[in-house]
Amino acid sequence: MSHNIFTALRRLVLAEMARLFPALDAEVQARIEVSPTREAAHGDMATNAALIAAKPLGRAPREIATALAAALAALPDIAKAEPAGPGFVNLTLADPVWHAEIAAILRAGEAFGASAMGQGRRVNVEYVSANPTGPLTVGHCRGAVVGDALASLLAKAGYDVTREYYINDAGAQVTALAWSVYWRYLQALGTQLTEEDFAAATPTGLQYPGDYLIPVAEALVAAHGDALAGPGLSIAPAGAWLDMVRRHAIEAMMALIRDDLAALNVRQDVFTSEAALIAAGGVERAEAILRGQDLLYEGVLEPPKGKTPEDWEPREQTLFRATGFGDDVDRPVRKSDGSNTYFFNDIANHADKMARGFDTMIDVWGADHGGYVKRMQAAVKALAAGRDASLDIVLCQIVRVMKDGTPMRMSKRAGTYIELRDLIDAVGSDVVRFIMLMRKSDAQMEFDLDAAVAQTRENPVFYVQYAHARCRSVLRAAAELPELGDTADAALAEAALAGLTAPEELTLVRRLAAWPRLVESAAQAREPHRIGFFLYDLAGDFHALWNAGRADATLRFIQADAIEASRARLALVAATAMVIRSGLAVMGVAPVEEMR
RNA sequence: GGACCCGUAGCUCAGCUGGAUAGAGCGUUGCCCUCCGAAGGCAAAGGUCGCGCGUUCGAAUCGCGCCGGGUCCGCCA
To answer: β-strand A445-448 against A399-403: which pairing, if any?
Structure first.
């Protein structure tokens, strides 16, 4: 069952408003909020009810606020309610209400924060979807982490989430990959050809010169000997080997990528192959849906203004009427030679998801695909044909990796790009994930390699982990003292908590109680980074309380001469650890018990 | 030429979908370990929220126009 003190208070406010002002309609009520205050002086929570209701009621906000405050102040859970500012009502809750939150957390365990918001609706989250042409790079990593955490977040918020990877295994790039593998194959056999000779003799050139293809080629040698090579270890006709080598290469690359994802603690439920989808007639099915609504036609595109390519010639191609669905121009689904564009295949991909029963879809893309958002959303609207289906797209901006204060150059060609695996090996997946989630995904990000490797206080993951480790440390120490009684979570949930009245303690409890609200708002906004910031703030509240115990011994967690106060504080500490674990779980980061 | 993203403290970034006196880390300055873990805490200094109009009770947040940075713009995926 989901538990959320803010929605509980909102219900109280709505009930009082409905009683005082029966004329209020549902639309107005829907805009009434109860939110935490920024200033402690304004109480625990504030509601904008009077400001929202003023205009429809034709009365002054202050007047409504005064009446509402008087009604709310009479409720047992509310210690103080007063009109403030332009027409807010500030609420201070009775301490027992906050104390009850601690017990609720301990009873719910790591499930605390789970929400029923999603109502079990199915959501498809597609992320990573890197071309199977090599190991994952730091560039892919952001989308992988954001997508994975977003999927976990939506699951926590009550959605039925499917995590999907769309394998781009049908285009020219995987053919180029096959040629690059073939080069390594000839090399492994000891060919006399030079790299330049080979590149010049192939349709694609040598696009993937990385060492990671050597073992792939060696496997080919082991399986086929020199049977795939031409006379004298020359280049054999492509028809004799290309399909097989391509299949072999894609399989090997996907194995690499799956390993990288596993190392990053990213898991996905469904891997959809573009090639398999095409072979199964997915594009024809999508085309039929669009043709049925007369949304495809043969036409000629205008050249882009101000930047006409040298070799531009008007060519007729098949176009999708994207302008009818909010896009700026109609978009090609076939090239001038009649073959399908990537866009057409991706339309088929989304049509396939919809056929599988997903009406809510989220794609996580790199920023270089930003220009593609409108057309894909247009296509989904068209495919829905009036049905209620939506595609949200989360764009992840470029990650610049900084080392020694300067950006590292990212060049696949030169082989200087950073493989994700190197980064994970250097700092661990927890650090990588946490840092990637400490930025809004649509903001550019600098990944400071020095700070991440150094593992100092500049690293937010350690700040949060340290708070958790401190909690666990206190609980371990408490378990050694028999006079404190049973310190298991279930037992602490029953502890008498009336003694928790210090400002630092209540600040911490208020933060813990805000976790369910944060899950909902972050899920709704598709912004998993908010979890990282929440945990960072929560850790700060806990560290502050910890240090308050240094200045004031009566605030220490364990006091042998005050068993009841100690048990109350242990309950608070256990609840803090619980919420941190709950949040880290959504981020896919493991909590630590100690940091030695 | 057009589309999309970004512009908030010296630097890196939050800002709860329009709320009250705009926040944090790093850096700078000064404090706090005979005491549960100092990888921590407290305090000070630092801002015309890129600029200008507009929308309304109220704008960092929404709209329009500029300026600056980024990503893109048919036969790559």
So the answer is: parallel
